[in-house]
Amino acid sequence: MSPSTEFIPFARPSLGEAEEQAVLRVLRSGWLTTAREAEQFEQEFASYCGVSHNHTLAVSSATAGLHLALEALGVRSGDRVAVSPYTFAASAEVIRYLGADPVFVDIEPGGFNIDPAKLLETLERQSEAGSPVHSIMPVHVGGYPCPVAELRRAAERYGAAVVEDAAHSFPAREPGAAHGATHGAAHSAADGEPPAILGTGSDAGVFSFYATKTITTGEGGMLVFKTEDAAARARVMRLHGIDRPVWDRYHGRAAPHEYEVVAPGYKYNLPDILAAIGRVQLRRAEEFNRRRAAIAAYYLEHLADLDQLQLPPHHLPQSWHLFILRLDRARVTVDRDTVIAALAEAGVGTSVHYKPLHLMPYYRDRYGLSPEDFPVSWDAYQCCLSLPIYPQLSDAAVERVVEAVRSVCRRYARA
Ligand SMILES: Cc1ncc(COP(=O)(O)O)c(C=O)c1O
Fold first, then answer.
1. 326: which of 40, 181, 336, 387 lies 20 to 30 Å off by Cα?
2. Ligand 1 in contact with 90 (CB < 6 A)?
3. All domains of the chain, ordered by start, with CATH?
């Protein structure tokens, strides 16, 4: 295939020689599991985010991090956690792992994130019914930031903890940033303190380093807590409920067999091979973010005149993990899946974020839900598609994506 007809995949990690060297260094060190690399990754990540290292834990996935976060904050069987259905399976399954129940709250019209007004109504309703919500889990879908300050105020009013699912949002900062302060490197001292990285200002925040995410370790994640107590609990639960790190067991003075199991913990540690990749990716996070923002800016400019589309929210600092288009179904003659098939035919890979959880058999049947129960999520699902956006996407590929989208819109435009 010539470069002009090669299929453009929906996502692709940006990995180079530095990552390869980092992996080799660990392979040759004789120590493969969690130790110094993971600890340094935690330290560097914490320092990048401006939070304490004691509060930061490298984990095997964001799913593991969300599970640990809820457990450490005290979610137990029978509790309730508010989350929108417009998210990936992980956000709600971790609630069920603990025997608690998700209380779904619809997303806001025109956006993809939990609706703050509906969340407030839900917190009020649950509280009046004597079944208060233990925690809320805002998901920054695609890296588009939730209004965290407002959500924290609502949670505080009802005594709920806040666990941010920041799987998509690294390294975006909380809304309210001064113009140009979207990431550390772009922020000059004259602007004053930059706002916090999304996911770091609540009771807990969880980042994903899954293969398609803004920085990747293949599989992995980072968990950041507000309090040292919660972090200490999660640190023990991260590795079998053992009260001593494995590196210390084999390199400390005391015998390796001397440890106590203080709880039935999990196996959620991040191995050093992956942490070494993460350390390199973290150093490249600003460069990646700039490239994603440049691609987003190109799409926004060159798709703006198409009546058949609504462009994603873009007035706030964001990570641009996803570029989610909405089809205006009144202005096209076909459904979203036909558009996806036509783009694939033109050599452009796309995806859908998300099929809402209340449509999934497990949640639908367990909680007796129908599509109309969360109409904004249901509607978004039917008209959304995500375009390729990642640092390795060349300018030529970005232009081809735009041409393909424009041509498909023309072909299916309602007269
Ligand atoms: C919104 C959201 N939350 C959580 C996760 C879980 O991340 P991980 O694959 O690192 O467990 C994902 C993964 O794609 C996600 O999209």
1. 181
2. yes
3. 17-283 (3.40.640.10), 285-412 (3.90.1150.10)
**Looking at the annotation, which residues are catalytic?**
213
Q: State yes or no: cis peptide before 390, omega within 30 of 0.
A: no
CA distance 266 to 273: 20
Residues of the chain short of pLDDT 70, as ranges, are 1-3, 177-192, 246-254, 256
Q: Which residues of 134-143 are buried (b: 16+ CB within 10 A; e: fewer)?
A: bbbbbbbbbb
Task: Tell whether pTM > 0.85.
Answer: yes
Q: pLDDT tens across 132-167, in order?
A: 999 999 999 999 999 999 999 999 999 999 999 999
From 59, 107, 140, 210, the mutation candidate for ligand 1 (largest count of ligand atoms within 8 A of CB) is 210
CA angle 215, 406, 312 (to 5 degrees): 45
Ligand 1 contact, 167 CB (< 6 A): yes
Q: Which of 275, 67, 290, 252 has the alpha carbon at shortest distance from 171?
A: 290
What local confidence, expressed as pLDDT, does residue 248 receive? 67
Nearest to 136 by CA among 192, 122, 181: 122
